[in-house]
Amino acid sequence: MTFDSPRQRLDTDALTLAYFRVPWDSDIFGFPVAQITEMQIAQPAHADLAPFMDWLEREHIRLASCRLTESRLDESMLLERFGFRFVEMVLHPHLADLQAYPCTHQGLRVELAEVADLTAIEEIAAHAFGYERFHADPRLDRAAADRRYRVWVRNSHVHPTQKLYKICEGADLVAFFVTEDKPDGLCYWHLTAVSPAFHGRGYGKRVWREMLHFHRGEGRTQIGTTIAARNTPVLNLYASLNFRFLPPEMTLHWLRNA
To answer: Is residue 100's pLDDT more than 50?
Structure first.
C-alpha cells in the first residue's frame, strides 16, 4: 500500500511551489491526479506557473488541486490565470482545551475497528459525504468520489498513523471516525460520519460528545478537523459544541480539457 510519492519543487525569486502526484486518488479516479502542497508568491508581477504546467503535461496529469488560506488572493489569481477554478471553501473547527471541556459518557461504545467491520463502515462512507470538493466539482464523477471514501476507510485500517474507530450502541454500528494523533496533544479527525440509518434521531451530537469524552480519557488536549463550508448541518453541530474556527481555506481544481 502506497501512502506517499516524491515531492517536486519549483523555486524562483518570484514563486515557491511544492507539489506531488497523488497515487491513491490516481488509482480511484483512473487517471493521474496531482496536488499542490505549498505555494508562495514573492513577486506577483513575475510569478509564472509555466514550469508546473509543463510538469502536468509530462506526467499526463488530468486533475490538479490546491488549497490556500482565503487571504492568498495573489496565489489564487495566478492559479485561475492558468485554468484553475474555485470549487469549495473549507472551515477548520478547533477545540483548544479538551481536558477542561465538560463532556460526559453518552452510552455509546468506541472501539478500534476490526477487519470484520470494514465492509459495513465502507458502506456508510460511500453514502455519508456529499459536500466536499470531489462531490462539489460538477466535472468529476460522483461515483468515483463515493469510492474515494470507501477506499480511505479501508486504507485507514492499515495506515501507519491513522486510526479507524467504530462507534456502537449495543450491536448497532452507529458511526465511524478516522483520526490521527498529532504533536502537542492534538487529535485530528480526518473523516467523521453517522450511518444514514441513524440520521434524524439525535445521534450526531451524542456521537461527537462520546468521541470528545473518549479522547479526553486518552489524554489528548486538542481536537481539530476540516469541514466544507457548505455543510451547514455539521457547521452548526461544531458551533453548538463550542468549537472555534481557524482561518478558512479555498480549494481550486484544474482539470485537463475541462
So the answer is: yes
